[in-house]
């Protein structure tokens, strides 16, 4: 078997494979690369030593059986016999479900999660979005401190378990999306700097030196990241990737990294004959992200739309601190703007940033499915002091209104696991760092962050306490009865409507018509022949829908039809979906 590694500044490279040691030779055709052969098969442990340094894991390791600090292991991807004959499933018409493997079940493994996929099929989900799976220190964590960008966290089950999960999902008709983190690695277990200039001080991020996308040596770093992305799509048959915080990918080159990545993914899609897509997390408000490359955009297929979330969250909760401030001045107007314009900040002044932010989205040319809409995400729950979900503070009626707005909006909807039954469990920030100093730094940093906002330090859950992770696991007995069962039925009803009514998947953002009353706290919008009305106020509201004949498609509370005057009498904290005619 041939081994190879990029280490452009090394004088010597040594391969340690099983019980043998041998020197690698420079590759005459690829400057900075070293290569050599050794006898190995699936599961063989190996590592590289740079000059006279310690034996380190392979930067392109496909498996880390003993965690980020251990030796790598060979993975023969050809050994797995795929069962599902999968033609792929694209993003238009999709309903996504964000899932954290470590807390979706108490067992916290991919195999245990696969056993619960039938729930998502019954719910009407089309794609499962897995939070990051790359190896990280310890057993439990969010996954955003991962390293070894080609490998699967061993406590989740490793590479074979991920293939079994994807295979089972595809058998059930579910696509699989993976959250990948290119903007930072580690810090614990990150040995890339020992091999080459994977990071640069030219730019700085909240996590330290930036990943090297434009400084000397960046050609190989970009190839490393793109190779990792393609490996998930090819070797594990993923259907798409969610790219974490792309605004932290600093690249001054004329050919932007994201454009290069999107071209590579589109090329692989053509090669394998199934749709593949990239979804960016970005707070830039920049439509160039999702503008096709042929129109001088970066060519990503979609992006998370935090503007819609912030507007909706503020309208439902009344919270108006921090980045919610701009939305809290007139929350229903903010919701209305996002429903019709996509972005809220489209060149407007952002008081949170102290400057103008974003630029307009051309809704006549950008399809609505290119923006993902959501009421809750891992970030918007877990980054709260107590990791409290909306269900901890909102009435069932307001939760139902949030679901109705998200699942009938012109965007691709996404749920966060447990949202569909108003889960009573929190989802808190938890870690399992094996480095005592790093563990203490994370613990104290978390407490100081919220102490600055008036929280008592002792009230902030300890990220390193195993109980913090345990509290965050879903309770699968909840959806079996009571208010949880009613909420689950409501989500199923709304998702079924979305699949059944073509107007609800119409990509034309320019065709959405909205009316609202900020003081009375109602909002209504039309998509084709479908009308949606929500009353966030406590009192009944007379909503002028302007139609006299309508059919109730779904209602949270019993509701009459519009009268001869076109007014809809809607109970407080309730919502309805109607069809005109």
Question: How would you describe this protein?
Answer:
The chain has about 575 residues and is an alpha/beta fold. The mean pLDDT is about 95. It has 14 helices and 27 strands. Helix 5 runs parallel beside helix 6 (about 255-270), helix 7 packs antiparallel against helix 9 and helix 11 (about 395-410) packs parallel to helix 14 (about 480-500). The longest helix is centred in the last third of the chain and has 19 residues, at about 480-500. The chain is elongated and about 85 Å long. The protein folds into four domains: about 1-55, Immunoglobulins (Immunoglobulin-like); about 95-435 and about 465-500, Alpha-Beta Barrel (TIM Barrel), CATH 3.20.20; about 435-460, no CATH class; about 505-580, Sandwich (Immunoglobulin-like). The strands form seven sheets. An eight-stranded parallel beta barrel has the order 9-10-11-14-15-16-19-20, surrounded by five helices. Strand 12 (about 200-205) and strand 13 form a beta hairpin.
């Amino acid at each position: 078997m041939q081994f190879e590694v990029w280490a452009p500044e090394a004088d010597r490279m040594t391969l340690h494979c099983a019980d043998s040691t041998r020197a690698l030779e420079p590759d005459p055709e690829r400057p900075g690369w070293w290569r050599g052969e050794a006898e190995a098969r699936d599961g063989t442990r190996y590592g590289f030593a740079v000059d006279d340094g310690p034996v380190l894991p392979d930067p392109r390791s496909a498996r880390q059986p003993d965690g980020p600090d251990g030796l790598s292991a060979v993975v023969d991807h050809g050994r797995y016999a795929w069962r599902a004959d999968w033609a792929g499933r694209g993003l238009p018409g999709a309903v996504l479900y964000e899932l954290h493997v470590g807390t979706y079940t108490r067992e916290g493994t991919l195999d245990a999660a696969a056993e619960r996929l039938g729930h998502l099929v019954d719910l009407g989900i089309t794609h499962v979005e897995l939070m990051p799976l790359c190896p990280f220190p310890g057993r439990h964590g969010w996954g955003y401190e991962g390293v070894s960008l080609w490998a699967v966290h061993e406590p989740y089950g490793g590479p074979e378990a991920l293939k079994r999960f994807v295979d089972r999902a595809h058998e059930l008709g579910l696509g699989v999306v993976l959250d990948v983190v290119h903007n930072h690695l580690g810090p614990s277990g990150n040995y890339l700097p020992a091999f080459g200039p994977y990071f640069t001080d030219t730019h700085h991020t909240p996590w330290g030196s930036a990943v090297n996308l434009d400084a000397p040596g960046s050609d190989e770093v970009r190839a490393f990241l793109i190779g990792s992305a393609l490996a998930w799509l090819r070797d594990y048959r993923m259907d798409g990737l969610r790219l974490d915080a792309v605004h932290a990918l600093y690249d001054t080159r004329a050919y932007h990294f994201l454009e290069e990545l999107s071209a590579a993914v589109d090329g692989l899609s053509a090669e394998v004959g199934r749709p593949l897509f990239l979804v960016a997390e970005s707070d830039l408000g920049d439509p160039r992200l999702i503008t096709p490359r042929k129109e001088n955009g970066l060519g990503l297929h979609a992006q998370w739309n935090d503007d819609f979330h912030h507007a909706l969250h503020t309208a439902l909760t009344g919270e108006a601190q921090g980045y919610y401030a701009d939305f809290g001045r007139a929350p229903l107007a903010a919701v209305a703007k996002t429903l019709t314009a996509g972005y809220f900040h489209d060149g407007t002044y952002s008081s949170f940033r102290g400057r103008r932010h974003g630029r307009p989205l051309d809704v006549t040319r950008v399809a609505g499915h290119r923006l993902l809409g959501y009421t809750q995400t891992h970030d918007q729950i877990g980054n709260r002091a107590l990791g409290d979900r909306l269900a901890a503070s909102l009435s069932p009626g307001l939760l139902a209104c949030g679901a109705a707005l998200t699942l009938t909006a012109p965007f691709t909807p996404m749920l966060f696991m447990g949202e569909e039954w108003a889960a009573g469990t929190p989802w808190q920030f938890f870690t399992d760092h094996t480095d005592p100093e790093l563990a203490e730094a994370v613990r104290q940093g978390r407490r100081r962050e919220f102490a600055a906002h008036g929280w008592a330090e002792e009230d902030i859950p300890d990220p390193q306490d195993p109980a913090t992770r345990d509290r965050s696991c879903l309770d699968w007995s909840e959806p079996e009865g009571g208010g949880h069962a009613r909420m689950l039925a409501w989500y199923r009803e709304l998702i079924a409507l979305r699949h059944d009514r073509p107007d609800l998947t119409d990509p034309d953002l320019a065709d959405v018509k909205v009316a609202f009353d900020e003081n009375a706290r109602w909002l209504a919008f039309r998509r084709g022949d479908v009308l949606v009305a929500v009353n966030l106020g406590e009192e009944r509201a007379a909503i002028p829908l302007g139609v006299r004949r309508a059919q109730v498609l779904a209602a949270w509370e019993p509701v009459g039809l519009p009268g001869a005057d076109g007014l809809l009498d809607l109970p407080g904290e309730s919502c309805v979906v109607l069809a005109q005619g």
